[in-house]
Amino acid sequence: MQCPKCRAPMHTYNRNGVQIEQCSGCRGIFLDYGELESLTRLEAQWSQPAPPPPAAPQAYPAPPAPAWGAPHGGHGHHGHHGHHRSKSFGHMLFSS
Amino acid sequence: MTPAPLLRALAARARAAAHARSSACPCGAATLADRPDGIVVRHADTVAKAHPPDSDPAELAGRLTLATRLPGILLPPLDPTPLALHGRLVTFWPYGAPVDPDDPDAAPWEAAATLLARLHRTPAPRGLPPMRGPAKAARAVARLREAGPHPAAASVLRAWATLPPWARAEAPMPHTSTLCHGDLHLGQLVRRPADGPWLLIDVDDLGTGVPAWDLARPAAWYACGLLPPEEWNRFLAAYREAGGPAVPVEGDPWPALDVTARALTAQTAARAVAKAVAAGRPLDEVEQSVVDACDRMATVPPQLAQEHTK
């Protein structure tokens, strides 16, 4: 078939069982009825997270924090702090 | 910047004091700090400190005497009497090994908390002046106002406005019977000898007041998402374990910490914004997180500190 936009020939590709037509000129993609939904469904299955690992046992419950606290601060989101343990963080703990 | 004659005179005095202590001095000299509020010079095992220009001699004398009397909590000076040098009061101290600023994981949270709890439990001598924490926070905010326009300044000032007058140094502190350090951060801990126990240094802000002020920096760092919950827990648990009176023995500590943690967050943000304006640079990620906390603070009224059994 010809590309409805630039009239160049379109080639058929198979992506995870879905036939899609791509234009050899403008690289535009043509989807038949239902193909977008099929791709979306496949994508959702692909990116669905693995079941979460069991929570690491904590020595203490997460300590309370004030209402104005950082959204993740003090709620046991351990990974959140990694990027803050930078040099400037270290030095902030040392200045008055 | 420090006038060169003062720095030179201070270095010479440190050298003389070091040589008076040891006939075999390796003569290693360094300037440890050179800030408007204090210059610290090291010569081998001896440190000389020029106190802030506005230091009151009688108040400093009282603070130095206290450091001499609490050698297990505060590093004692070599001589409790300050020397006048180029219009500044100068004191001499043994050198102590500091916390490594490049290794926050090695921070001695338990030692800091235990020293504070012991300080807070020590009866305050009569005549000791008030702790200077609120005055320093107010000064940081005053400098922010003078620094010139910055988009984050309004957030910091709104957060500051949520505080009660005492926390802004506009009224006396509500409780003035507890001995407080007044300016706790990780640069205020040294070990002497280097493998010995930790001690608190810097008596300039020492005095009587609200002990929660001394817990407020770690509390603020935790609230701003900068200090991981585990480390905050270690600090708080050690303080409680040592019988510190600033927070209830168990349960939510925030009613007791909210005002002071807000004050230190606003102070830290004010300093950061004023520095960024002076340097013509943007806020870094850490500074921005403290300003963001100020933003949120303005929408939440302060928690009322409830009286608790001490």
Description:
The complex is a heterodimer of chains A (96) and B (310). Chain A has helices at residues 35-47, 87-92; strands at 10-15, 18-23, 29-30. The N and C termini of chain A lie far apart (72 Å). Chain A has 96 residues and is of the alpha+beta class. The longest helix of chain A is centred in the middle third of the chain and has 13 residues, at 35-47. Chain A has a domain at 10-45. In chain A, β1 and β2 (18-23) form a beta hairpin. A three-stranded antiparallel β-sheet of chain A has the order 1-2-3. The model of chain A is unreliable at 73-83 (pLDDT under 50). Helices cover 20% and strands 15% of the residues of chain A. Chain B is α+β, with helices and mostly antiparallel strands. Chain B has two domains: 4-94, Phosphorylase Kinase, domain 1 (2-Layer Sandwich), CATH 3.30.200; 104-297, Aminoglycoside phosphotransferase (APH), C-terminal lobe (Aminoglycoside 3'-phosphotransferase, Chain: A, domain 2), CATH 3.90.1200. Chain B is built from nine helices and ten strands. Chain B has helices at residues 4-21, 57-69, 109-121, 133-146, 153-161, 212-223, 229-241, 254-279, 285-297; strands spanning 29-35, 38-43, 46-50, 83-85, 88-94, 97-98, 178-180, 189-191, 198-200, 207-209. In chain B, the strands form three sheets. Chain B has a five-stranded antiparallel β-sheet, covered by helices on one side. Chain B has a three-stranded antiparallel β-sheet with strand order 6-8-9, with helices on one face. In chain B, a hairpin with a 6-residue loop joins β8 and β9 (198-200). In chain B, α6 (212-223) packs across α8 and α8 (254-279) crosses α9 (285-297). In chain B, 47% of the residues are buried. Mean pLDDT of chain B is 92; it is low at 306-310. The A-B interface holds A 59-60, 62-76, 78, 80-81, 83-96 and B 99, 101-105, 107, 136, 183, 185-187, 217, 221-230, 232-233, 236-237, 252-254, 257-258, 261-262, 268, 271, 284-287, 289, 292-293, 296-297, 299-300, 303. Chain A: Residues 49-66 have a biased composition (Pro residues). Chain A: Residues 74-88 have a biased composition (Basic residues).
